[in-house]
Amino acid sequence: MGLPTAWGAAAVTYKLACPLARQNGLGARITTCAVFFAVGTGLVLHVRRGLLRELQQIRRVAGAAQGVLLRPLPPRIDGLGLAAAQLSADRGASVGGDLYEVIGTEHGVRIVMGDVRGHGLAAIGTVAAVLGSFREAVHDEAELTGVLRKMERALDRHLGERAKAGHPSSGPDPDGTVAEEFVTVLLLEIGRDGGMRALNCGHPWPYLLRADEHRAGARPGARPGARGRVEPLGSGDPMPPLGPFPLPGELAAVPCGLLLPGDALFLYTDGVEDARDGAGRFFPLAATLAEATGTRPACPQTVLGTVFTRLLDHTGGPPTDDVALLVLRNDRDEPPAPPQLEHMTHHSTL
Question: CB–CB of 112/185 below 8 Å?
């Protein structure tokens, strides 16, 4: 308050004590107007600087909180190279309704990719509940089904608390009622041998970016490139999203083959494939992935950068829905061949 008080005192002193301020001539009036204009400008600039400092502090606090919620991933976990990015549809928010996490455990590397109904700041509370339960359950549960059931219970508790009248989190709900909220979830586990198992609750299946030397085992529907292939990882209908319906009593993870050395996985939320250009055409994700891996190895950072660049070019600016991308590549050494396979190969040569 010191500087505004000094400016105000200077203006009052000029008006009361300066002889020029009491004259009625044109020159005196112009001088008086100039003095008060300078005082007003100084006060406005001082207030503006204070507001900017406060806004910067708020952004630093919000950025730290969002970084804890959707923390940056390390470049490598248990021999898997990683690259991930998220873009919120709400301006000024770095976290929206999409979520992802990768954690190395004694049971293997476990990954979650999810999408909360709605987007932006209104979905952050649900993201926190789902991610928090996943980070705890992956270390305690030996089976992937146990992780999913704990996530379901955490979501049910969160939604139940929000539904209670007067609960602090029961604020305005622009996207609908709590009863209509749901979360699509993809759980994936990668063992030391590269074996993959998944549980899918209403989420898009990832793409497998298969290295050139593994083309012989490509699945139907693969898109060939100059070096490798882009293949859908899973097939069949996923389970319903978490929230509206309970999980089935009999639950088993789906085997998804091997992630061989040099292969990569591309996980994403539906905001990518649903993005449209000015003519209403959807974003060609599979073709973009084939382009990103066509002339070079599937480097996670390169694939991520190519998809984001093409996506922003396609939409002509930020997309209207939250977007999350995650790329994993198997950088482990080649697994040794089973002894029985070597024995069979030796006899067949003879």
Answer: yes
Residue with tokens 């998804």, as numbered in its chain:
256
For residues 47 and 213, what is the distance between their CA atoms, to the nearest angstrom? 64
Specify the pLDDT at position 7: 55
Distance CA 190, CA 253 (A): 12
Q: Using CA atoms, how far apart are residues 331 and 350, in angstroms rounded to an integer?
A: 35
Mean pLDDT by 10 residues, the chain (350 residues): 58 60 62 69 74 63 54 91 83 68 95 81 80 94 95 91 61 54 94 94 93 50 54 85 90 93 93 89 92 75 91 86 91 61 38
The Cα-based distances of 27 to 11, 30, 162 in angstroms read 18, 5, 66
pLDDT at 170: 45
Residue among 18, 44, 41, 13 nearest 31 (CA):
18
Q: What is residue 35's predicted lDDT score, i.e. its pLDDT? A: 66
Sequence-ordered list of residues with C-beta below 8 angstroms from that of 21, at least 6 positions apart, any chain: 14, 15, 28, 31, 32, 35
> What pLDDT shows up at residue 92?
53
- The interaxial angle of helices 144-163 and 124-140, nearest 10 deg, is 150
* Residue 307 near residue 325 (C-beta atoms within 8 A): yes
Can you tell me the distance from the alpha carbon of 176 to that of 251, in angstroms, rounded to the nearest whole number? Answer: 30
Rounded Cα distance between 193 and 196, Å, is 9
- Residue 247 has phi, psi (to 5 degrees) of -65, 150
- Could you tell me the two tokens for 143? 């089976």
Answer whether 239's CB lies under 8 Å from 184's CB: no
Phi, psi of 159 (to 5 degrees): -70, -35
